Amino acid sequence: MQRLNEAKKKRAIEPWCFPVSIMGILILLIIFLPFISTDKLDQRGRSQPCNDQECRLILSESMPRHLKYPKEAPLFPSTFRTWEDLIHMAQHSIDIASFYWDLHRGEGLVSSHRSPQHQGERIFNLLVKAGLKRKLKVRVAQSAANARFPDNDTSVLQKLGAAEVRSLNFTYLLGSGVLHTKMWIIDNRHFWVGSANMDWRSLTEVKELGLAGINCSCMAQDLAKVFSVYWYLGEEPQKPVPPHWPTAYSTHINRTNPLSLFYNNSKTPSLVYMASSPPPFSSNGRNSDIDALLNVVSGARIFVYIAVMDYTPVLQDQYGKKYWPVIDDALRASAYSRNVTVRLLVSKWNHTNPAMVYHLRSLLALNGIMRGRIEIRWFEVPAFTPEEKDIPFARVNHNKYMVTDSCAYIGTSNWEGSYFTTTAGVSVVLSEPHSAPYSGSNDSSPSTNDNTTTIRDQLESVFVRDWSSKYASSVTIPG
Ligand SMILES: *[C@@H]1O[C@H](CO)[C@@H](O)[C@H](O)[C@H]1NC(C)=O
Ligand SMILES: *[C@@H]1O[C@H](CO)[C@@H](O)[C@H](O)[C@H]1NC(C)=O
Ligand SMILES: *[C@@H]1O[C@H](CO)[C@@H](O)[C@H](O)[C@H]1NC(C)=O
Ligand SMILES: *[C@@H]1O[C@H](CO)[C@@H](O)[C@H](O)[C@H]1NC(C)=O
Ligand SMILES: *[C@@H]1O[C@H](CO)[C@@H](O)[C@H](O)[C@H]1NC(C)=O
Ligand SMILES: *[C@@H]1O[C@H](CO)[C@@H](O)[C@H](O)[C@H]1NC(C)=O
Ligand SMILES: *[C@@H]1O[C@H](CO)[C@@H](O)[C@H](O)[C@H]1NC(C)=O
Ligand SMILES: *[C@@H]1O[C@H](CO)[C@@H](O)[C@H](O)[C@H]1NC(C)=O
Ligand SMILES: *[C@@H]1O[C@H](CO)[C@@H](O)[C@H](O)[C@H]1NC(C)=O
User: Which phi and psi (to 5°) does residue 338 adopt?
Assistant: First the structure.
């Protein structure tokens, strides 16, 4: 009780990305309604505290081979390890929402344990085993196959009877776009959301970031509702997007009614919700990804750190290309009006859109007349060996996250218009207290008063590590 009052007081004066009054209501709910089941609360249409005492949230990263950081730099479990663990943990079901599949690189190809394809094959084989030998229910929703992404892996899974696969044709559903979500849900109890595609490169050749939740039923069940939207739409080739989603798809968890989650035995709650795009896929109560993103930006008081592969204020869809300054405006406004430091870490590789640098320089142009600052760096993943140079569409920082002084945002979308209007993605937003920031020195495990780190803390340490690494270089205005 004492602690909760303290937390409440602290929050009232601290920067926060949810309205303070909502916090008050939540705290009352935490005090008075700890044992009321989710179902009862759902029927009454109120937000609920989450009773997942065992919930563990864990960041995961893929590190491209041969990338080197100082010894003291923060390090998290690999995407490979995380996926492997999730498959092993499964007792009933594995649901995977994915863009395309290329884990296996050709049927019958047997690579050695040292080859870069090995980890992808291992995941593929574990999924086959899960479906066939372990008799788990494996379901895959994917973007419809095309010449560039033939999705041979999922055809094989389906032919073997290891998985049920549904494909979504966005040209039919929305005119343009793809299913770009990367999300795993295990037994409606564990989950992973992040930047990594179902591609062997995503495990060893591309830099990725994701969030795993173990024993986090509240979050997993909400993400499962997003999966069920894809599952519904993929049921048959010409199933249109319904004008209103049936109530079974609705959520009571959103920005104004977030989950109050005590993960990793924390004494202070994190406020959590899951957003999705595109808006036509949003069931009742679901925040759109762009609203979540903008809200996190505008809630920042000190800094906004963004790591994303592609950033351009342009929307390109079936109607052509148009200027789309939605995120640009929010970043400028934060730096201009609120003395916020905006740092943008974008990716330089062989496929960087040449227009990107012009847009980035336009953001930099206002430095000097704003209260805050906008700083931008490229992150480049070198190819260290001839073999690495030869791998197409690899060696890139593929991250899609943001961390501010009060929030962590982990998404699956690049920051360009169509990702928020016609392409499907999800994001997880965690609002949590700011503790000692990572200083870039030996202090790699910042801790709060109760000796725990938060995902926000850890994400900040990831950002600072990359921003100050030798792979980052400033974007500047020439002349
Ligand atoms: C994928 O399958 C198609 C036919 O369905 C085949 O032509 C192609 O060679 C396969 N690709 C790989 C890499 O196995
Ligand atoms: C997707 O839908 C479009 C428009 O309905 C259609 O022309 C196209 O053939 C479909 N693609 C696939 C792979 O089914
Ligand atoms: C998840 O919960 C189960 C059952 O309560 C427990 O045995 C397991 O250790 C938990 N896993 C983690 C990673 O906390
Ligand atoms: C958020 O959820 C509450 C119910 O929990 C609902 O009343 C509200 O309309 C939802 N917000 C949005 C934007 O859908
Ligand atoms: C703006 O923020 C910086 C650090 O983020 C701080 O040093 C400075 O005093 C602030 N300026 C104003 C006018 O608030
Ligand atoms: C990028 O492309 C150039 C020219 O095609 C090639 O020489 C280089 O190796 C490529 N870099 C990577 C990392 O693939
Ligand atoms: C880390 O600690 C070691 C020994 O305590 C010290 O020599 C080194 O300079 C520190 N590194 C940084 C970046 O502060
Ligand atoms: C908190 O962290 C400090 C330093 O890492 C450690 O010495 C101490 O035992 C921890 N306390 C608890 C209660 O875990
Ligand atoms: C939560 O606990 C797990 C171990 O169970 C640990 O790997 C992870 O880093 C912790 N998460 C945070 C945010 O401290």
Answer: -125, 15
For the full predicted model, state whether its pTM sits above 0.85: yes
Ligand 6 pocket test target in 201, 389, 393, 471 with most atoms within 8 Å of CB = 389
**Assigned domain for 123 exists:** yes
Report the CATH number that the domain containing residue 75 is assigned in CATH: 3.30.870.10
Q: Give domain status of residue 120, yes or no.
A: yes
pLDDT recorded at residue 115: 80
| Cα-based angle 288, 311, 438 (whole degrees, multiple of 5) | 85
Segments of 289-330 assigned E as strands? 303-308, 311-312, 314-317, 320-323
| Tally of structural domains, the chain | 1
pLDDT of residue 443: 44
Hey, whose CA ends up nearest to atom 12 of ligand 1? 106
Is 271 touching ligand 3 by the criterion CB < 6 Å? no
Residues (pLDDT < 50) of the chain are 1-15, 19-20, 28-29, 32-47, 436-449
Measured from the Cβ of residue 319, the count of other Cβ atoms closer than 10 Å reads 9
Give the pLDDT confidence score for residue 267 in this predicted structure.
87
Tokens 């993929």 -> residue: 234
Whether residue 30 is contained in a domain is answered as: no
| Residues at CB less than 6 angstroms from ligand 9 | 56-58, 264, 452-455, 458
What is the span of the domain harbouring residue 223? 56-474
Residue 32 lies in a domain: no
Please tell me if the CB atom of residue 339 comes closer than 6 angstroms to any atom of ligand 2. Answer: no
Asked if residue 72 has its Cβ within 6 Å of ligand 3, the reply is no
